[in-house]
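User: My notes are a mess, but here's the protein and zinc ion's SMILES. Can you give me a structure?
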Amino acid sequence: MRYDRLALALAAAMSLTCFAPVCALAQGPGDALMQAEEAASEAAAQDPDDISLKESANPAVKPVMLYTYDQMVHDIGILQGRYGNRMRVGSFGTSLDGRTLYEITIGNPNAGKHVMIQAGIHGREYMTPLLVMKQLETALEFADTANYKGEPLKDMLEEVQVHFLPMVNPDGVCISQMGFEGLRSYDLRQIMEEGYEKDLEEERTDTTLDKYVLYCKGNGRGVDLNINFPAGWEDITTSPGHASYTGYKGERPASEPETKGLMALANRYHWAATVSYHSQGEVIYWDFPENKVREASKELAEELASISGYTLLESNGKGGFKDWMQVKDDPAPSVTVETGAAECPMPFSQWENVWTKNRSGWAAALYYAFHKG
Ligand SMILES: [Zn+2]
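Assistant: No problem, the inputs look usable. Here's the predicted complex:
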């Protein structure tokens, strides 16, 4: 049984060293949870209609460990049936392995301000697509009735459109959840298998293939999309020269269709704020060396920290989507939110923690855009 095998491999995986560039836990995970719960109870004391208190009576998006691309597509269809007049389902491209890159937009279609909430750019961080799909469902269900910090969502959504990109790297999610057989393309499977062999030879890994696939962050040909953007890309010196589970920056900046699609969408609008969900560490990265929107990015980070209790950190690397958004022409206040306090793929026991601290994240970005954007 795949699930038994996965559970065993996961249990083994949890004992290994974290491969993330930074696994900062500047405070205990319990501290952040207490802060998030305090923030929610404070909001409740002031306003029983705060979005942080709203639960779907009959949710379409049901939290599970392996929240798959196919499940997400199915759930988007259900949400469309229920809330079709409130949402616009679009796409910003197609993945290497032929999967649609979804963009779901809510708010007044004529509104001039735009917020982006994106997740799942790293395959093994597939709890973040679930988070963003749950955010989307509560946004749709309570858009007319709930508030954020006393401000009616309805009023804010008159002036701001919120674009949800729940799974930027669906091929990587499929690999981490199902192994290389999760890829439809024989050629891509070959590239990934060769990448694994080279990683073994170069001692970038010493795990069995079963475990190796679980850790895959990259796309269908082993490029880490969040170091594939043209923001300090040339200065990334740790990249292998081949497909890998992590750390391969690609042959050139924006070499990948997922990167290109996201950049084209980013260049289509002037963004008031972008939020990128990752795992793990319970921190918010808000800066970059050439950041053109430094103060604004910090303010956005502070708004998200006020509900999550996460710690603010300045920067964590190069070539990331956030980094590029902060340095490109027409830059946008942007943050990377590292959810969760366990190694990826995070065990399902992290879900309540991740949801509690980040459920209003989209509304926090909306509030920031409405007032400051
Ligand atoms: Zn990540």
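The chain is about 40% helix and 15% strand.
User: Great, I'll file this with my notes.
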